[in-house]
Specification:
The complex is a heterodimer.
Chain A lengths: L3 E4 L2 E5 L4 E7 L6 E6 L5 E7 L5 E4 L2 E5 L5 E6 L8 E8 L6 E3 L3 E6 L1
Parallel strand pairs in A: 2-11
Antiparallel strand pairs in A: 1-3, 3-8, 4-5, 4-9, 6-7, 7-8, 9-10, 9-11
Chain B lengths: L4 E3 L2 E4 L5 E6 L6 E8 L3 E9 L2 E4 L8 E7 L2 E6 L8 E8 L9 E2 L3 E5 L1
Parallel strand pairs in B: 2-11
Antiparallel strand pairs in B: 1-3, 3-8, 4-5, 4-9, 5-6, 7-8, 9-10, 9-11
Amino acid sequence: GQQVMQIPQYQHVQEGEDFTTYCNSSTTLSNIQWYKQRPGGHPVFLIQLVKSGEVKKQKRLTFQFGEAKKNSSLHITATQTTDVGTYFCAGPYSGTYKYIFGTGTRLKVLA
Amino acid sequence: DAGVIQSPRHEVTEMGQEVTLRCKPISGHDYLFWYRQTMMRGLELLIYFNNNVPIDDSGMPEDRFSAKMPNASFSTLKIQPSEPRDSAVYFCASSLDTGADTEAFFGQGTRLTVV
């Protein structure tokens, strides 16, 4: 079945350092979504990418969808303590609304 | 809108008991999803509905699990009988097919502990 893997599983950074998480799907995706889950909270939608090679920015966050539409990345510039949480990518299974979530990357920011 | 509302927020039950989790999606949303989150298995999609009809329940782990959506504003996830390995956070989410973004709005979750 479809699998969505993320690396790294954990990342500890000093405040002000950059952070990147990578998402890889075993199948081509029609789109990819990113979510953030704060500790003890629920996943919150960040963005959706649809086009091959698409790049979108939200303030310090940069999202990229791979040319082959099988991978994606999230880059955070100059991390802040408010960036702490787990970042998930999610992709739809074979044209359905069955979104498969990635394994997640847990980010810890040290002040 | 108050967002997706789940109840209860926490549930502690004894093994063998029936557990019912409840969800009220955002008004007007036509998709409803039930997810389970554990440290070992991450976020797993259990079942999803479109316009109150179950579309894919392949993620439901066993026959002990069942879900219903009797109307557009209410869904339940039932576990009978419950087992300790069912302990997890269960999330309900809803979304609207706009043809563009299909973001899912998650509820606060129900933390289930089966002892």
